[in-house]
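Translate structure to sequence.
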């Protein structure tokens, strides 16, 4: 089993979120920590109708995601800002998890990203509230990476401050 699960919080193909998840994974591995990525773009297409509410536990493909979450105690959520919050697919994914035990008493780090100047501040605030409600211990250090298309290219940061901030957060999460 790996130590940390990194959740790429969108189902958009070839997103910055998955690129940042891979980058974050490399930071953790440099620190001797095993990490896996859970890419929400690989969720079953019908999970909204076949895995939530009265259908909980009935979608074998979604159940694999549930089992993955259950096997970890630490998470990194890579969260893009969509329409002033985080992607709906991430909320639907969280809603599909068994409540309250899937995330209760577990630890999470949040990384926000956006094309604009806020770096996903609202997205992180909304997600933090939901995770806190679910009993997840959320690391206080929440980097917000703004204007990502100007600062991150071909899997590397042009802005060294962003690189430094993510490394600092990863070290905080490891000892959290």
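Result:
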């Amino acid at each position: 089993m790996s130590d940390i699960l990194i959740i790429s919080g969108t189902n958009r193909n070839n997103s910055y979120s998955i690129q940042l998840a891979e980058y974050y994974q490399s930071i953790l591995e440099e620190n001797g920590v095993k990490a896996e990525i859970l890419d929400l773009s690989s969720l079953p297409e019908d999970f909204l109708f076949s895995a939530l509410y009265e259908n909980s536990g009935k979608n074998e493909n979604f159940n694999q995601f549930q089992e993955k979450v259950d096997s970890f105690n630490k998470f990194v959520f890579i969260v893009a800002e969509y329409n002033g919050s985080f992607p709906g697919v991430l909320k639907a994914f969280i809603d599909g998890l068994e409540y309250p035990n899937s995330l209760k008493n577990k630890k999470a780090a949040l990384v926000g990203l956006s094309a604009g100047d806020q770096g996903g501040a609202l997205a992180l605030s909304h997600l933090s509230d939901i995770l806190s409600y679910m009993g997840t211990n959320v690391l206080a250090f929440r980097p917000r990476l703004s204007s990502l298309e100007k600062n991150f290219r071909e899997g590397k940061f042009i802005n060294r401050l962003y690189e430094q901030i993510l490394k600092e957060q990863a070290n905080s999460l490891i000892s959290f």
